[in-house]
Amino acid sequence: MRLLHRPLLASIALLSLAACAPAPIYKPAPDAVAAVPFEVARSPERFANGSVIWGGRVVGVNNLADRSEIEILAYPLDSSQRPKVGDTGNGRFIAVMHGFVEPMAYPDGALVTVAGKLNGSRAGKVGEADYVFPLVNVTQAHAWTAEEMRSGRSNVHFGVGLGVGIR
To answer: Please, is 153 exposed, middle or buried when counting C-beta atoms within 10 Å of its C-beta (0-12, 13-18, 19+)?
Structure first.
């Protein structure tokens, strides 16, 4: 009888760990582009008008007369569409938002995820280096809080051996 409980307990444990991760915030569009920003920058015409869900770290906000542009250092996204900052960067892109964007809502270093359509590219510079930035016309944007970035991460760790925790 005891052996029958083990598979059940293991299943419950796995399900509860899986339930910790929040759901994705945006639904991928049918015309979703699987390429990352540096790949799109190489041949933007190939991905014209494709939908993307990209995220990363805000580098800066530039407010213009009719729109705002947020330069973002791209990172891969996790299953909840949060930027994985411990990973390598995927290039940079410019998120184009209609109207005025409050720079305090997207401060330098903030982690964001945006959904939108690719709309070409623009040559620019990163420091003294020439750079091609894919442009994303943003339809939805989310700036992640520290709590949201921590949520869904389990404090349960599996291993073999002896451990001591001090609080």
So the answer is: exposed
Quote the tokens at residue 31: 């015309």
- Domain boundaries in the chain? 22-147
Digit-coded pLDDT (tens) for 11-58: 444 444 444 556 788 988 888 999 999 999 999 999 999 999 999 999
Instruction: Mark residue 25 as left, alpha or beta (left: phi above 0; alpha: psi -120 to 50; beta: remaining).
Output: alpha
Locate the DSSP E strands across the chain.
51-63, 67-75, 92-98, 111-126, 129-143
Between CA 109 and CA 56 the distance in angstroms is 9
Alpha helix stretches (DSSP H) within the chain: 2-18, 37-42, 146-150
**Which pTM does this prediction carry?**
0.78
Q: Looking at domain 22-147, does it have CATH number 3.40.50.150?
A: no
